[in-house]
Amino acid sequence: MLNSSPFSRRPFLGMLSGLALVGAILLGGCSRFATHGPHEYVYVWARGTYLRDRVAAVSNRVAEVVNGQRLQVIEHGRRFLKVKTDKGEIGWIEDHGVIDQQVYDKFNQLEKDNANDPVVATAVLRDDYWLRDAPGRTSDRFYLLPENDKLQLLMRASVPRPDAPQAIPLPIAKPANGADKPGPPPPPNLEDYWLIRDSTGRVGWIRARTLDEDVPDAIAGLAEGQKIVGAYVLRKVTDPDANVPGNEVAEYVAVLAPYKDGLPYDFDQVRVYTWNVKKHRYETAYRERNFAGYLPVTVTEEDSTNQEPAFSYRVATGEQAVLDPQTGTVKPGETVTESFRMEGVMVRRVGEQPARSPVAPATHAHHEKSHRKRHG
User: Fold this and answer.
1) Global confidence as pTM
2) CATH level 3 topology of 41-100
3) Residue 166 predicted with pLDDT over 70
């Protein structure tokens, strides 16, 4: 028979109370080391700055931080953040010198989305410039690219320039019935941006006027007032008297456009430059103009099987192309691919020439002069 005396249950109840107390202490101790969610990070977009030991008119430098560096946020102030570097250095930084995780993720997503995009042309950066997450001067900026950086061009966009004076409205027309009828609204002032990839694989948007298309100096002076958008090697010929490495001179197909932003096409001219071995100079073997052409230009170089070089590109055949008002990118409409091949120094069209959408010629000579100056 079991003993039901209350005194027999006291040791058991005491043991349970002791276990509960130990469990509470252990849980309380573990809570001190539990994670309180992911850390908050910001990233330096400024060229370079310093962390300070206090937010005051007089403070000491704690550490130097540079563009692209990650910082862990410890405390939020009114206009400053208390942060810690990966080395454990702690100090204060102005909040307008950094971007948050959301903006940083946009640049990462740009890099992922465009990792396999074809390169339509190459360019050189004239001066230091920040990558932006979208075309336009009000978009967020982050990575600072150095002067003379080599860039791969992926896509062009044209967006309104916010600080530019707008076009003068057309005068009011006087129809026959005497009623005042305003003319069509003036087009906005546009500026071009390029989606680029740098040598490290970073992707972002750069204003087109801050870079120069990577054009060989040998043919840069043959553009006749136009801008060479891209130049592509077709083949190389041997000239013993040519002052080039290995005496191998490149022949090019080049596509050109006016010096004007906001064009609804990438180029409106094509030229083929071949090398005259006897006269030791470039000559224009083929030219065509007044059409709406679109990048990329596909080139098949001459190879060891003696296959003649060939090239192709897209041209508009339907209605006039338009700019997407949301993204600024060109919507070419109906296009067809035109192909050409070299036969010696002659350029032959492959197939029949389709009906094209003509474009009106336009030039801006002052830009051409500055381009010549940069290329000597």
Assistant:
1) 0.77
2) SH3 type barrels. (2.30.30)
3) no
